[in-house]
């Protein structure tokens, strides 16, 4: 049987237009289905263009959906967009009724790469900003999925990795750029290793202060709920409410938190909280973490019971309150090679690292404090290496 493993969506019989005006959803979906069910796989190719979607694309079998990359659209001196799109391959959406891309639970082994997603957001940001209530730009429900070199230009919600009827696992995200407004990457019920590497969340769409202030009050860059052993590396987050949130989800049999997370080479810039842990029983390790907080409250904030957090090579600077705040019954933080710099900028007397009763903090010999106010404090237990 003859198979065409390379399907150009602009060619016959698909004939997508890619001009940003015509609805290309049916053409692209037909190409995806032909690759999945006729060819038993293949590469669905989106040449440079803007492909408007009138409904969401669904990938139900293992295929590769690939574009020609993307470039950052230009902005004016105030950081407001001059164009909706740049060069490359773009999926354009103005409907709140669907996700542009959904990878269903049967699409094990598929790949999405080298394309961008743009939502139509309010462009008059001078007086204020609130995003349109779009669902996730990409919804992942399958195992063994790879998403690579994808630009989430201005989504209200970015990528959701979860499966409400089962678990999901072995999903890899690499080189994810964008400016999400409520959630960047959300992971839930992932019971096998998820790897998130090389993420850069920055004001690509608009750096105007009404937009970035909205983000600082509302955006959670990366959220992790009931997940086992997720890996996060080489992450940069700018101007969000929380850089990372580790929380609990579900109830009954589906209830759970993140266990054994690994975080390495992370820079969290101008966020209210760098790491926010409120899920009881969360466990994880952090290495090579920098948090620059102004006007943030806490660099690392643990406020849940039975949390076990290990951290090394950690620097927190320019925060209003504590550099690190640990609270919760049975909660333990073990910290080594820690530099807390310019904490308590509110002047309210916050210590650099605070252990709130009955939490315990173990602090290694390699520690440096440079700021105003007590270095350590709180009514919890401190164990200081000598």
Describe the overall structure:
The chain is mainly β. It contains two helices and 30 strands.
Structural class: mainly beta
Helix content: under 10%
Average pLDDT for all residues: 94
Largest sheet: 18 strands, parallel
Question: Oligomeric form of this entry?
Answer: single chain
Q: Distance N terminus to C terminus?
A: 73 Å
Rg over CA atoms, rounded to whole Å, is 22 Å
Unreliably modeled segments: none
Task: Estimate the global geometry from the Cα principal axes.
Answer: globular
Overall strand count: 30
Total count of helical runs of at least 4 residues: 2
**What proportion of the residues form beta strands (DSSP E)?**
35-45%
Explain the layout of strands and helices.
Elements: E1 6-8, E2 19-23, H1 25-38, E3 43-45, E4 49-52, E5 57-59, E6 64-66, E7 89-93, E8 101-103, E9 111-119, E10 136-140, E11 146-152, E12 157-161, E13 172-178, E14 183-187, E15 195-201, H2 209-218, E16 220-224, E17 231-238, E18 242-246, E19 261-269, E20 273-277, E21 283-292, E22 298-303, E23 308-317, E24 324-327, E25 332-341, E26 353-356, E27 360-363, E28 367-370, E29 376-377, E30 381-384
Parallel strand pairs: 1-3, 2-4, 3-6, 4-7, 5-8, 6-9, 7-9, 8-10, 9-11, 10-12, 11-13, 12-14, 13-15, 14-16, 15-17, 16-18, 17-19, 18-20, 19-21, 20-22, 21-23, 22-24, 23-25, 24-26, 25-27, 25-28, 26-29, 27-30
Keywords summarizing the entry:
mainly beta; 12-stranded parallel beta sheet; 2 helices
């Amino acid at each position: 049987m003859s198979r065409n493993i390379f399907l150009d969506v602009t060619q016959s019989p698909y004939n997508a237009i890619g001009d940003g005006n015509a609805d290309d959803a049916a053409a692209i979906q037909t190409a995806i289905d032909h690759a999945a069910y006729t060819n038993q796989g293949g590469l669905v190719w989106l040449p440079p263009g803007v492909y408007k979607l009138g409904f969401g694309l669904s990938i139900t079998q293992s295929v590769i959906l690939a574009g020609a990359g993307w470039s950052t659209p230009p902005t004016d001196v105030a950081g407001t967009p001059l164009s909706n799109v740049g060069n490359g391959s773009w999926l354009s959406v103005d409907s709140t009724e669907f996700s542009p891309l959904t990878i269903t639970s049967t699409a094990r082994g598929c790949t999405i790469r080298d394309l961008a997603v743009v939502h139509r957001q309010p462009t008059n940001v001078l007086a204020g900003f609130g995003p349109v209530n779009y669902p996730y730009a990409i919804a992942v429900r399958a195992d063994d999925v790879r998403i690579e070199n994808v630009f989430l230009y201005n989504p209200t919600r970015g990528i959701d990795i979860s499966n409400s009827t089962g678990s999901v696992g072995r999903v890899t995200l690499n080189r994810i750029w964008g400016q999400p407004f409520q959630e960047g990457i959300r992971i839930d019920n992932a019971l096998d290793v998820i790897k998130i590497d090389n993420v850069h969340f920055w004001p690509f769409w608009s750096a105007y202060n009404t937009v970035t202030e909205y983000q600082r009050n509302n955006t959670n860059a990366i959220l992790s709920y009931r997940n086992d052993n997720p890996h996060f590396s080489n992450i940069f987050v700018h101007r969000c409410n929380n850089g990372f949130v580790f929380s609990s989800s579900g109830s009954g049999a589906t209830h759970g938190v993140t266990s054994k997370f690994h975080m390495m080479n992370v820079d969290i810039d101008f966020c209210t909280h760098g790491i926010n842990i409120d899920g009881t029983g969360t466990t994880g390790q952090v290495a090579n973490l920098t948090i620059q907080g102004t006007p943030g409250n806490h660099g690392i904030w643990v406020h849940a019971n039975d949390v076990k957090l290990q951290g090394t090579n950690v620097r927190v600077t320019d925060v209003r309150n504590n550099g690190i705040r640990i609270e919760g019954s049975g909660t333990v933080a073990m910290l080594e090679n820690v530099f807390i710099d310019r904490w308590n900028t509110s002047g309210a007397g916050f210590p650099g690292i605070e252990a709130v009763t009955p939490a315990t903090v173990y602090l290694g010999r390699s520690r440096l404090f440079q700021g105003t106010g007590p270095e350590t404090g709180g009514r919890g237990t401190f164990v200081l290496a000598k």
